[in-house]
Amino acid sequence: MGVEMKIGPVKTEKLLKALYKLGFRPVRQRGSHLILKNQMGRMMVVPMYKEIKPRLVRVIISELGITREKFLELLEDP
Hints:
The protein is an alpha+beta fold. The protein contains three helices and five strands. It has helices spanning 12-21, 54-64, 68-76; strands at residues 10-11, 25-30, 33-37, 43-47, 51-52. It has a three-stranded antiparallel sheet with strand order 2-3-4, with helices on one face. Strands 1-5 form a two-stranded antiparallel sheet. The chain is globular.
């Protein structure tokens, strides 16, 4: 079994780029929260802070239904 990579804080800009790669697009913004939607109708709410804390990043990964490794790949790709 491989070593599990620890998730640290993620810059909101990088998180949004990863979500765009997964097909999510902004539909509206309410206060400091951006609401995104993909073609399947799945919604995702992202707070527009400088950084997203690790706990919330783990929740987002879980909501997306992808592995931590896949998420980290999405963050690294240009």
